[in-house]
Amino acid sequence: MNFYMELSDDVRSDANSKVMFTIPNGDEVITQEILVSDITSDSSNNVGGNCWIFPCHTAAKEMTAPITVKTVYTNDDGEQQGEEFTYSVKRYADYILDEQNNFDDAAKDLVRSMLYYGGCAQTLFDYRTNELASADLEGYTPLNAPAAFAECGLANVNYRATQDAGLQLTYVSLVLESKTTLRLYFKRTEATASDPLPTLTDGTSVYEPHQKDGETTDGEYYYDITDFAPGEIFSMRSVSFDGGEQFNVCVGDYCNWAIASNDTNLADTVTALYSYDEYGKAYKTLGYTPGEG
């Protein structure tokens, strides 16, 4: 979620000033901090005058969560805090759906699918279920997910490519945040247990290995393939280890398994994710009919 903020001279003149976001998470509070200088050093973040865009990363389940934002800076009187402002993804979505604001049907369809997806994610993760993002969508029905995402790649993963890297694919999962992340789990083969782990690349981005749950070097590792945006979530990506032989990956690889599982909430969530992605395509592509891609 993007916040458009006008910055005072005091904030701009302090090299260490920051914007702080807080999001409730059960009994805890998630805090995100962004240095103002990191935003103002890039002119693409400026929307005119002294107004700048500050992104706050939210998970799909957090659409009804109140996001509090404030500036923190230092002047001659010591550390100062700007006025707090609270907003939410749901509140902005309601603004788009309000007929008085004249958003087109494609935008409204996208927002409805997003709210439905958010409500499913809340139910799946048991988060703020007394205030579902989808609560006002009476009679809303998502698009039917395909029986199988047949074109997705892990069913035909390049066995030699992974074996040459000294790894064996063990599991796939999703991270449902502002943009969807596909997480691939691998286990080392015995022959390479002491070798450095390779990086994974799609030719544009490089994805580093992460150790799962602090296990030892013979445990599992994962790679996060990031930034699957709405309208592109089910697109195929070709990846390789250290620039070696390529293989294809797709979010649909996980969804195939989820839809076939006995977990109704999980199946509902990935079905809603598919619907959200389709309406994202329709919003970006004139003439595209959701569900027929």
Give an account of the 3D structure.
It contains seven helices and 15 strands. It has 293 residues and is α+β, with helices and mostly antiparallel strands. Among the domains are: 88 residues, Immunoglobulin-like, CATH 2.60.40; 111 residues, Immunoglobulin-like. Strands 2, 3, 5, 6 and 7 form a five-stranded antiparallel sheet that branches. A four-stranded antiparallel sheet has the order 8-9-13-12. Strands 11-10-14-15 form a four-stranded antiparallel sheet, with no helix packed on it. A hairpin with a 3-residue loop joins β8 and β9. α3 runs antiparallel to α4. The longest helix has 21 residues. The mean pLDDT is 87.
Low-confidence stretches: none
Mean residue pLDDT: 87
- Identify the overall geometry: globular
* Number of extended strands: 15
Helix content: 25-40%
Strand coverage percent: 25-35%
Q: Could you describe the largest sheet, including whether it forms a barrel?
A: 5 strands, antiparallel
- The number of helices is 7
Distance between the termini: 27 Å
**Helix and strand sequence:** EHEEHEEEEHHHEEEEEEEEHH
The helix/strand class is alpha+beta
Q: According to CATH, what is the class of the domain at 154-264?
A: Mainly Beta
Q: Could you tell me the CATH topology label of the domain at 154-264.
A: Immunoglobulin-like
Based on the coordinates given, report the CATH architecture of the domain at 154-264: Sandwich
Rounded to an integer in angstroms, the radius of gyration calculated over CA atoms is: 21 Å
